[in-house]
Design goal:
about 280 residues; Aminopeptidase; alpha+beta; 12 strands
């Protein structure tokens, strides 16, 4: 039975976690479920689709907007309930919701270890938009010096223009969801001589810190600034008692991938993002 839900109570989150564990055990890799988003759903709109069989959750699809007009979809179907059309029904209902909400673009996130997910995307005329590697750092970052002229601090309202410019230069059109007017503690700015030269967003949970929207001014790249800032974030996490850091990088970004692995990050999975026409 299909359920469209506004917000996720603790008992449903528990069932999603069990379903995730069963799916990953069967397929390997990981699922990009963005647990910090699931645990903080506002409940004012439908953001999650559930499929129940005899009071057991066997299918899930989450909608993630990150504050922008586009939406990412990520979910799973229990291995014992596949090939019954559940994934297709969840996806079709999500497409209807996106039309109703006026979304501009749908990206279905498929782990590369899931050939069934790719088949589902292609059955809805989906085509590969881009792919990303997921990387984790467990333990301490590779040691190295820190530049005393650099300061890493929280973003203030005076930084918004510089932050938006740096993100747009780094990510182009895809920077939109990362450029937000409302300030929050996850957004950090790197400053040198009173000038913002880099920006980074850190999503914190007790178990893991996730690094997103990391960008350095183009003319200053290749000078060790990114390496320095990543070391600082990793050390702050370690001081806070957090052992794991997570980040994602496009598969064709060899420079960034080399930087992350040199600091001790290891690739854990690869995800393909399929553009679903609607």
């Amino acid at each position: 039975m299909l359920e469209l839900t506004r917000g996720l109570p603790p008992e449903t989150l528990t069932q999603i976690a069990v379903l995730e564990l069963d799916s990953v055990s069967a397929d390997g890799g990981r699922l990009k479920l963005e647990w910090s988003a699931l645990e903080s759903r506002a409940g004012d709109s439908v953001e999650d689709l559930l499929w129940w069989e005899d009071n057991r959750l066997v299918g899930f699809l989450g909608l993630y907007t990150f504050g922008g007009p586009n939406v990412e979809l990520s979910g799973m179907v229990h291995p014992d309930f596949r090939r019954r059309g559940i994934g297709g029904k969840l996806l079709d209902e999500a497409i209807k919701l996106c039309r109703h909400q006026g979304r501009h673009k749908i990206l279905l996130v498929i782990p590369r270890t899931s050939p069934g997910g790719r088949t589902l995307a292609e059955s809805r005329r989906g085509f590969l938009d881009h792919s990303e590697h997921a990387l984790d750092l467990d333990g301490e970052v590779a040691q190295g010096p820190l530049d005393p002229s650099l300061t890493l601090r929280a973003v203030t309202s005076n930084d918004l223009t510089d932050e938006a410019r740096i993100l747009a230069e780094a990510f182009g059109d895809s920077a939109g969801p990362m450029v937000l007017d409302a300030l929050d503690e996850s957004r950090l700015a790197a400053e040198r001589d009173g000038r913002v030269i880099a920006t980074i967003r850190v999503q914190r949970t007790p178990e893991q810190w996730g690094i997103y929207g990391f960008a350095v001014e183009p003319q200053l790249r290749g000078m060790g600034i990114g390496r320095d800032l990543l070391r600082r974030v990793c050390r702050l996490a370690h001081e806070a008692g957090v052992k794991r850091l997570h980040l994602e990088v496009e598969v064709n970004n060899d420079r960034a991938l080399g930087l992350y692995t040199s600091l001790g990050f290891a690739q854990t999975s690869t995800e393909d993002y399929f553009d679903i026409p609607f």
